[in-house]
């Protein structure tokens, strides 16, 4: 048996934000890095924790986006570090 390259995977990103304009700017930057978005979830209030309240303000919202182009799963950790 020979090792094979992994199949490409769907990239999706969760975004926490309290400022809609900054979130839209972040989505534009993500689009530049990863290509066109094929899904943008509805906005919903993030009530799971108030951990980010002092840093981000309140209320905090969450949205998910995914991208048309599939990526190599070996690149996931590199992408995580680039976007923190």
Task: Explain what this protein looks like in three dimensions.
- 31% of the residues lie in helices and 23% in strands.
- With 84 residues, the protein is an alpha+beta fold.
- It has one domain (12-77).
- The protein starts with 11 loop residues before the first strand and ends with a helix.
Quick take:
With 84 residues, the protein is of the alpha+beta class. It has helices at residues 20-34, 53-56, 76-82, and strands at residues 12-17, 37-40, 44-45, 61-67.
Number of helices: 3
Q: Separation of termini?
A: 38 Å
Largest sheet: 4 strands, antiparallel
Strand content: 15-25%
Q: What is the global morphology?
A: elongated
Helix-and-strand structural type? alpha+beta
Defining traits:
31% helix, alpha+beta, 3 helices, four-stranded antiparallel β-sheet, 84 residues
Secondary-structure blueprint of this entry?
Blueprint: E1 12-17, H1 20-34, E2 37-40, E3 44-45, H2 53-56, E4 61-67, H3 76-82
């Amino acid at each position: 048996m020979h090792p094979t390259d992994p199949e490409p995977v769907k990239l999706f990103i969760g975004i926490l934000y309290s400022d809609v304009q900054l979130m839209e700017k972040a989505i534009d930057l993500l689009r530049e890095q990863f290509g066109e978005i094929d899904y943008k979830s509805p906005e919903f209030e993030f009530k799971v924790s108030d951990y980010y309240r002092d840093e981000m303000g309140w209320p905090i919202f969450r949205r998910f986006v995914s991208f048309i182009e599939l990526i190599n799963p070996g690149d996931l950790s590199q992408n995580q570090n680039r976007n923190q």
